[in-house]
Design a protein that fits this description.
This protein is mainly α. It has a single domain, classed as Glycosyltransferase, CATH 1.50.10. It contains 14 helices and 4 strands. The strands form 2 sheets. A two-stranded antiparallel sheet has the order 1-2. Strands 3-4 form a two-stranded antiparallel ribbon. The longest helix has 19 residues. The protein starts with a helix and ends with a helix.
Length: about 375
C-alpha cells in the first residue's frame, strides 16, 4: 500500500468514524419492502414477456446471466413478500426455457450460462417436479465427471455457479458437490493468473489475470473492481446460507467473507456508496449501485447470521442502503448510477442518476438481494 492510498484510507476511516458517531437511522421494514416492490414493479412492467429476447449490441436469450441474477433477487423478494405474481413470473420464465440453460446447451461449462439454475432449483424446492432440476443437475454432473477445475478464470463466475453446487449438495446430501465447489473456488483463489486472483494482503480480488500486478490503476494501486468483488462477496454469503454448518471448507468461506468485509469497510465512500475502483477513488470515482448493493447484501447477511459484528457493520450497511434508495432509486423504480456490463472501472462510464445501462437486470437483482437482508436486519 503506497503512501497516497494510506492517506486516502485514513481520510475514509475518519469519515466512517464520524458517520458512525452520527449513525443514520435504520429504515423500517415497511419502507424497505416498499422500495423493493417499486424497483421490482418497474422491471416487471418493462418486461411483461418473460421469454422476450434481450437486444443490445446483439440478440440474446432471456436466461443469460444478467437476467438470471435478477431472478435470484426476485426469489429473495418472494421469500419475504410471497406474492403469487412473483412466483408466476419466475416459473413462467423457467418454463419458457424448458428449465434448460442458455440456448438449450445443457452441458455447458460456462458459469454465466449455468446461473439460471439457481432459480430453477429454488422453484424446484417450492414444488419438487423432476423436470425443474433435471438440466442444471446434468450440467453440473457432467463437470463432476471430469477432473477439470480451472473453469472459473474470472471472479464473476464464482457467484454464477458456486451456489448451484451448494444447493445440489444439500438436495442430494452429497458432499462431492461441496468438494468440487471448493476445488474450483480454491483454484480461482490461489492458481489462476500469477498466484491466484485473491490478494490476501488486501483482502480483495483481481477480476481476472489481466489485472494481476504489475497492472496498476492510475494512482499506482492494484485494480480491485467493485462489482467483481461484489460477485465474490455475494457468492460467499449465498453459499454459507445454503450449506450445513458441518459442511467441508465452511470455515474458509467464513474467513474470506470476514476478510473481504473488513477490507471493504475501509473504502466506503462518505456518501455511503463504493467507487468502481476500490483502491483508486480518482479513477472514474463516483456513486455506483451494483457493487454497493452486493456489498450491502454480503455484509447484512453476515450480521444477520452472527458472522460480522452488528456494532461495526450495521452503520455501514444502513448508510449504503439509505444512499441507494435516496440517490439512485427513481420514484418509478428505475435504478441510477448502475455501471454497464464489463470487467473494469472504465466500462460504461460516465455514470449518472438518469443514465440507462446496457442491462438493468443484474443491478436490480443485487438491489433486491440487499433489500431482503436489510429487511431481516431491521425486523427488530
Amino acid at each position: 500500500m503506497n503512501g497516497k492510498f494510506a492517506l486516502i484510507c485514513l481520510t475514509t476511516g475518519l469519515c466512517l468514524l464520524i458517520g458512525t458517531m452520527h449513525a443514520q437511522p435504520a429504515m423500517g421494514q415497511t419502507e424497505i419492502l416498499e422500495k423493493m416492490r417499486v424497483a421490482n414493479a418497474y422491471f416487471m412492467k418493462k418486461w411483461p414477456d418473460v421469454g422476450k429476447t434481450i437486444i443490445t449490441n446483439k440478440e440474446r436469450a432471456s436466461n443469460i446471466w444478467t437476467r438470471a441474477v435478477y431472478y435470484e433477487g426476485l426469489m429473495a423478494l418472494y421469500s419475504i413478500d410471497p406474492k403469487q405474481a412473483y412466483y408466476d413470473y419466475a416459473k413462467d420464465w423457467a418454463e419458457f426455457h424448458k428449465w434448460n440453460l442458455r440456448d438449450g446447451d445443457t452441458y455447458t461449462r460456462n458459469a454465466d450460462n449455468q446461473c439460471a439454475g439457481q432459480t430453477y432449483i429454488d422453484l424446484y424446492l417450492i414444488d419438487p417436479q423432476p423436470e425443474r432440476i433435471k438440466h442444471i443437475k446434468a450440467s453440473i454432473d457432467s463437470m463432476m465427471n471430469t477432473t477439470k477445475i480451472d473453469d472459473w478464470s474470472w471472479i464473476d463466475a464464482i457467484q454464477m455457479t458456486m451456489p448451484v453446487f451448494a444447493k445440489l449438495g444439500v438436495i442430494y446430501n452429497n458432499k462431492a458437490y461441496y468438494e468440487r465447489m471448493f476445488a474450483m473456488y480454491n483454484f480461482t483463489k490461489t492458481k489462476h493468473g500469477t498466484n491466484g486472483l485473491y490478494n490476501k494482503k488486501d483482502g480483495l480480488w483481481w477480476r481476472d489475470a489481466d489485472f494481476d500486478p504489475p497492472y496498476q490503476e492510475p494512482n499506482g494501486e492494484d485494480c480491485y473492481w467493485s462489482r467483481g468483488n461484489g460477485w465474490v462477496l455475494v457468492a460467499l454469503a449465498r453459499v454459507l446460507d445454503i450449506i450445513p454448518n458441518d459442511a467441508p471448507h465452511r470455515k474458509v468461506y467464513v474467513k474470506d467473507l470476514k476478510r473481504m468485509a473488513k477490507a471493504l469497510a475501509k473504502v466506503q465512500r462518505p456518501d455511503g456508496f463504493w467507487n468502481v475502483s476500490l483502491h483508486d477513488p480518482t479513477h472514474f470515482g463516483g456513486k455506483e449501485t451494483s457493487g454497493t448493493a452486493m456489498f450491502v447484501y454480503g455484509m447484512a447477511w453476515g450480521i444477520n447470521n452472527g458472522i460480522l459484528s452488528e456494532k461495526k457493520y450495521r452503520p455501514i450497511v444502513n448508510k449504503a442502503w439509505n444512499a441507494m434508495v435516496s440517490d439512485a432509486l427513481h420514484p418509478n423504480g428505475f435504478l441510477g448510477y448502475l455501471q454497464s456490463t464489463g470487467k473494469e472501472p472504465s466500462e460504461g462510464q460516465p455514470l449518472s442518476y438518469d443514465k440507462i445501462p446496457d442491462f438493468e437486470d443484474y443491478g436490480l437483482g443485487a438491489f433486491l438481494l440487499a433489500g431482503s437482508e436489510m429487511y431481516k436486519l431491521n425486523r427488530k
